[in-house]
Amino acid sequence: MTQKVRMMCFIPAGGLTSGQMNALESTISGLYQRHFGSNYRLMTVWVSVPQNQFYLAGQQSMHCTAQVPVMDGLPDHLRHAFMRESCEAWMKITGCSRNQIIFSSPDLSYAKENMKQLAGRVRRPQRVITAARLLLRLLNSKLRHGHLSVSVNISN
User: Fold this and answer.
1) How far apart are alpha carbons 49 and 147 in whole angstroms?
2) Whose CA is closest to 46, among 85, 20, 79?
């Protein structure tokens, strides 16, 4: 049975082309299956952050952050090998330096709990409307650009 794993990528608005995002999805999905088995399928969500809201060390940044959860309790040497190859692929595809990508592979249960807590930050009466709005935007981006993408600002 195939298990879906959500890969969350936070990128500065306009920081990557659609072609780069598609190449990253394909490449990192392949690496994930090679490292952890073909029974996993990555579902990538690209979160676009307006450039005036993306800062590192107190200055505007063009850095990208990716979170790809792995099985709970995975030994660090296996986790690190996957993260290292993923970062190398990211640098090759985007042309960024190793200091321009932040890559995280937490335990899957931690990532799921984190997403649940984030959803809990939306007031209960607004959750259904907000979730529906996000799903429509994600579907629209998939149909128009070939990948799931949404602005970090729900109102955008």
Assistant:
1) 16
2) 20
Round to whole Å and give the CA distance between 23 and 27: 6
**Residues whose CB is less than 8 angstroms from the CB of residue 111 and which lie 6 or more positions away in sequence, other chains included:** 6, 67, 69
pLDDT in tens, 37-58: 999 999 998 888 887 877 778 8
pTM of the model: 0.78
Residue type, 85: E
Question: Tokens 């936070």 correspond to what residue?
Answer: 10
pLDDT, tens only, 63-97: 899 999 999 999 999 999 999 999 999 999 999 99
- What DSSP character marks residue 51? G
Angle at 20 between CA 17 and CA 25, to 5 degrees: 130
Supply the CATH classification number for the domain 3-151.
Answer: 3.30.429.10
Whether 45 and 8 have beta carbons less than 8 Å apart is answered as yes
User: Which runs of consecutive H residues, i.e. helices, occur in the chain?
Assistant: 18-36, 76-94, 108-120, 124-145
